[in-house]
Write a structure and sequence with these properties.
The chain has a domain of 194 residues: P-loop containing nucleotide triphosphate hydrolases (Rossmann fold). Helix content is 30%, strand content 19%. Strands 1, 2, 3, 4, 5, 6, 7 and 8 form an 8-stranded mixed β-sheet that branches. The longest helix is centred in the middle third of the chain and has 30 residues. The chain starts with a strand and ends in a 19-residue tail after the last helix.
């Protein structure tokens, strides 16, 4: 889930690029790493085999700037495309906030696309995610190759739910940032919606919470009427035995209070207001 660090004023989200082997997941991250400014990205970490196949994952942290005073950081991951690395796939999916499914547009890769998409849904359910509700963008990659399937057919087979999708040629950068910007938007929109719901629940409970007593004001209206007919100090002040002005305690202490009680009320500092909790939706655009 989206992680918010209020002390550091950071919001951190995890996005995983999922898909069959050689569909272009790592190529997407490599292009992002190459094009974003050095001061907004970390080092691209790749654990690959000698044949340049992703063995474990690729990892790229990027900073997309400030949102309502919070630094928005996204961690981009890929998973290995090969089915026999499914344990690694599941591990990388832990704590995911959004998914980019990178599909290969070539006709002979359709079965692998379907297998990978089915595997993704199974792994999400194992973690308790609802595949239908998690933010996801589908990228139809390799559109620059000859003989690729029409987008309408790809949508029919891979995108029956009508998720956002983009055509891409990751090797030359087409569609790479369009895909990334859309998944970032979906993740932030969902986080804002979820936190707004949590805030509403808190507000409904507020009447049952004890409220802090207001600070005493040095005025007649602040004095509590005594239960006896004896006039309060505010109603009928007694003449002072000396020309000195009456103490502030006499102005706010109720009549009939024990000796010294008025001084305790007057000198006790007003209780501090309860610390304002950070609104859950602050880091997100309104």
């Amino acid at each position: 889930m989206v992680s918010i660090n209020y002390s550091a004023r950071e919001v951190c989200c995890k996005i995983v690029y999922y898909g069959p082997g050689l569909s272009g997941k790592t190529t997407n991250l490599q292009y992002v790493h190459e094009k974003v400014p050095n001061n907004t990205r970390g080092k691209l970490i790749s654990l690959a085999t000698e044949a340049d196949r992703t063995l474990y994952f690729d990892f790229l942290p990027i900073n997309i700037g400030t949102i309502n005073g919070f630094q928005a950081k996204f961690q981009l991951y890929t998973v290995p495309g090969q089915v026999y690395y499914n344990a690694t796939r599941k591990l990388v999916l832990r704590g995911v906030d959004g998914i980019v499914f990178v599909a290969d547009s070539q006709p002979d890769k359709m079965d692998e696309n379907i297998e990978s998409l089915t595997n993704l849904e199974e792994n999400l359910r194992e973690y308790g995610y609802d595949p239908a509700s998690i933010p996801m963008v589908i990228q139809y990659n390799k559109r620059d190759l000859p003989g690729v399937l029409p987008v309408a057919e790809l949508n029919q087979r891979l995108n029956p739910a009508g998720r956002p999708y983009f055509e891409a040629s990751a090797t030359i950068g087409n569609g790479v940032f369009d895909t990334l910007k859309m998944i970032i938007k979906l993740v932030l929109d969902k986080a804002k919606s979820s936190n707004a719901g949590a805030s509403a629940s808190v507000k409904k409970m507020e009447p049952t919470q004890p409220t802090a007593a207001p600070a005493a004001q040095p005025s007649v209206s602040a004095a509590t009427p005594a239960p006896t007919p004896t006039a309060t100090a505010a109603e009928a002040p007694s003449p002072a035995p000396a020309p000195t002005a009456p103490s502030p305690a006499a102005e706010v202490a109720p009549a009939g209070a024990p000796a010294g009680a008025g001084t305790a009320v007057a000198t006790a500092p007003a209780p501090p207001p309860p610390a304002e909790s950070e609104p859950a939706v602050r880091p997100f655009p309104g």
